[in-house]
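Task: fold both queries, return tokens.
Query 1:
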Amino acid sequence: MSEITPDLVRHLGVLARIQLSDEEVPRLAGQLGAIVDNIAKVSEVATPDVPATSHPIPMENVFRADVPGDMLTTEQVLQNAPDAADNRFRVTAILGEEQ
């Protein structure tokens, strides 16, 4: 069992600048105690013999062959364009005259 006391919860509340009511203190003491107990359980399991991992199974990159597929026609590409001219997308200029 953890050593989270109501006095410690009140002290933590002062440090965090959180005003705690008398009803909240015992509830938070129990919740913080459960958190500390669970962290202690995890610390017991983690030993130097167990390597740290980010995933439970080994991961590797899988690449597919780079094979060209079906191509869209110019008409298909431009059919939903807001504006097009000379078989190209037409957009507003973003560069000033100095370019």
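Query 1 returned. Query 2:
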Amino acid sequence: MKLVILGGGGFRVPLVYGALLGDHAEGRVTEVVLHDLDAARLGAVARVLADQAAGEPDAPTVTATTDLDEALRGADFVFSAIRVGGLEGRAADERVALAEGVLGQETVGAGGIAYGLRTVPVAVDIARRVRQHAPDAWVINFTNPAGLVTEAMSRHLGDRVIGICDSPVGLGRRVARMLGGNPDEAFIDYVGLNHLGWLRGLRIAGRDELPRLLDDPQMLGSFEEGRLFGAEWLQSLGSIPNEYLHYYYFNREAVRAYQEAEQTRGAFLRDQQARFYEELGRAEPSTSALKAWDATRAEREATYMAENREAAGVGERAAEDLESGGYEKVALALMRAIARDERTTLILNVRNRTTLSALDADAVIEVPCSVDANGAHPMAVDPLPGHATGLVCAVKAVEREVLSAAESGSRATAVKAFALHPLVDSVGVARRLVEGYRGVHPGLGYLG
């Protein structure tokens, strides 16, 4: 099978390739094509992948190209992990938002809207070209904001685009370990939108063990989300929120921590990855690109959501919490299920159909899905409580305004998207945000 990785010069690509190396079964990926607009970054990542493949029998071949149409032809799967505007764009998103006293995080609030406005037109173009050059391909979207971008692409690809995120899986694995269960065998009852969901149950051997965790404040305070939100708040909710909900439940504290930080997350990653690519570009051919990548990745993971932990007063991440859900493992499991009809259950971003009655059928949500050769099928879930339904509906309404603004080029609709977001809540601020973002992002010039 042929796998095309869009954003193939991106830092996380070796995770995907590393997962492929362990697969030797029939119907596996044998050809990987990296696509990126930056040839130098493509070369650097190709070196890391070559180090990974050294000594591995039957490693998938790797080629790189800056020609999108060439990359797509004959693809069986397309993995999209693009970053429109690069990390400099993310850093600019943060600066503009924080200057207005609102959150600039890349998927949440003002920053997420800005990122969506410049990413959706590019994602839609990719969807159209996939349909033209690889109509039978399945698109696995990891591009942020993942739910919004998946919904934009689904308007052109239908159910053949599926969004993935490692955040809910990582949460489920941490909770399963706390409860003494095998994370690979537990069923995670998780519902919401991407980066806006709640773990409401965790079944081990058919029994929901989450109430046992919620009844034990000491156990609640012993893992990442428990320390971040606090046992009392989790007991009040009766569920474990996705870590990104910290931006909603503790918004003022998070914004203050971001404003007081020496450097925003986007600026840190921009500088860190620039050093990695620059140093690898100057290094001798004998230098281990894989070791350099591993060291950079370890620093990246250890500093994840540092501002939120600062706001919560919980210090550095514990070693046992550094493991993510492994989006590369989710992607591989998804490809196997579709290509080989190896049925499985995964938490994915798919069209709602009738899953959540508060949303229409085409709204992309994040829920457990059964996956087979025909794609991903959302499983029936219990309704969300009122407070969660209200938040999901409000944010989905904002996403729809972003999609409308991207399609129409309407500045007024973009202002509406910002103004309606719960973390912006001011028309005046929304207008200044639109002008601020237009000033730093040439790609938003389409908003007339």
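Both queries returned. Flag for query 2: The chain is about 50% helix and 15% strand.
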